[in-house]
């Protein structure tokens, strides 16, 4: 395999890996969005149960307001996952602000079009006989790391929010389960 073909194969591999990490970010967004909607519905449902004139099982009057607070905490945690990482330095701890990544929207947005074009030509125009440049491959690698960090943050926040929501579900269900067990024992 010629050097140029090796570079092309490596660039394709890195681009495919970047596409996968972007998919992980999208999936993390979707999971947090679904959990936010789930918590919102449960908040409204709990408020409706509390405002209903029907008698509540023992403990429900005390546990449902606590469940509402937990669903609210879970929803706010899920919302936190939507806060954007707008520079490479935001997404990758220790990334130098001075070294802008010409593939990252936040870094590109800080330049005018002429500056971006000049930097892109300088960094990404391959030498004769080469498929790509080391700078381009470096920027792809940095993007993979940045998007991986963003995805990881979204999944960590999702897991935290899901655990809070599961606790809230238990608090909603507990008084009704106890009430059902007591009725069965009669």
From TrEMBL:
It is found in: Cell membrane. Keywords: Antiviral defense, Cell membrane, Membrane, Nucleotide-binding, Transmembrane, Transmembrane helix. The chain crosses the membrane at residues 33-50, 62-83, 161-182. Pfam families: PycTM. InterPro entries: PycTM_dom (IPR043760). It comes from the Bacteria. Coiled coil: none annotated. One of its GO terms (biological process) is defense response to virus. GO terms for cellular component: plasma membrane. This is Pycsar effector protein domain-containing protein. It comes from Plasticicumulans lactativorans. The lineage of its organism: Bacteria, Pseudomonadati, Pseudomonadota, Gammaproteobacteria, Candidatus Competibacteraceae.
């Amino acid at each position: 395999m010629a050097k140029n073909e090796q570079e092309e194969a490596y660039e394709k591999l890195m681009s495919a890996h970047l596409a996968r990490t972007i998919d992980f970010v999208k999936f993390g967004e979707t999971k947090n969005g679904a959990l936010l909607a789930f918590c919102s519905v449960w908040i409204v449902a709990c408020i409706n149960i509390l405002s209903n004139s029907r008698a509540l099982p023992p403990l429900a009057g005390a546990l449902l307001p606590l469940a509402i607070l937990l669903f609210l905490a879970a929803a706010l945690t899920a919302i936190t996952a939507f806060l954007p990482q707008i520079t490479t330095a935001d997404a990758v701890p220790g990334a130098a602000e001075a070294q802008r990544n010409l593939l990252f929207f936040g870094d590109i947005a800080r330049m005018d079009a002429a500056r971006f074009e000049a930097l892109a030509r300088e960094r990404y125009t391959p030498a004769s006989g080469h498929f790509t440049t080391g700078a381009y491959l470096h920027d792809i690698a940095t993007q993979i790391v940045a998007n991986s960090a963003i995805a990881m943050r979204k999944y960590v926040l999702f897991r935290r929010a899901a655990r809070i929501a599961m606790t809230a579900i238990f608090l909603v269900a507990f008084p009704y389960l106890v009430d059902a067990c007591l009725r069965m024992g009669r």
